[in-house]
Task: structure prediction
Amino acid sequence: MLALDFLRRIGACSLVVGLSTAAVYAEDKPAAKKEQSVAAEKTEKPAAEKPATKKPDAKKPDAAKKSADKKKPAAKVSREYVSGKKWDEPKIVTPGENGGPPSDAIVLFDGQDLAKEFSGGEGWTVADGAATVGGKGGVTSKRAFGSCQLHIEWATPQEVKGEGQGRGNSGVYLMGIYEVQILDSYGNKTYFDGQAASIYKQRPPLVNASRGPGEWQTYDIIFRAPEFDAAGQVVKPAAVTVLHNGVLVQNHFELEGGTFYDRPPAYSKHPAKLPFSLQNHGNPTRFRNIWVREL
Result:
């Protein structure tokens, strides 16, 4: 009995000791886990603990860029240019219709009375709104003109007779001295500085803008009269621009002097204004709608 009681007591003690050991182990285990967790955190955190390098803000310019911007010149403000010159207001001129005279023009021939504004013309006839060359002499304007715009309509004979200078020949003599040639130059060969719209014996036309025989043609002549000093020397030569049937054929050509058939061009002092004339070269050339604007 004593032996059995002793074994029971030993077994109970062993049980108590075992339970106590298990309890101690259970209490120590969380601490171990905590130590392992702290160790793991220490292992994983070293890179994160380093302070991150601050990136420059892309929206904010750095000091160098700010300095460069300060050196850029300011944009210039565009302003309207004003000449400062004082001009007179241009007067109003009503244009003519279908080649008719503008409101400020002096009408020299409207197809009715040639003798009203021209002298000479013995043998010339007026019919159907046109004056036809005849007799032996030309006609000369009763008024004197200097620089001017001159409009003349003309037609060479419909019946072709002769050739070269003998075909529909006439001329507009500005100031009675400087000739713009009139000729039938439609398929008619002659020397170039003697064909229609040439400055006779000085300058051929830029192009041949002639219409056929018998057709009405136009000259619009812008003439600048020459200027002379007290000694008779040329200060400013005469200059002429011609539109033949609306085509530019003389572009502000400066004349070398008067236009002559038998001698070179030369200047001789004359008044600032002189009459102009229409030549009679023996061909029945016709004229109509003659007007002038003084410049």
Observations:
- Residues 117-294 form a domain with the Jelly Rolls fold (CATH 2.60.120.560).
- The helical segments are 2-44, 46-49, 63-71.
- The longest strand covers residues 286-294.
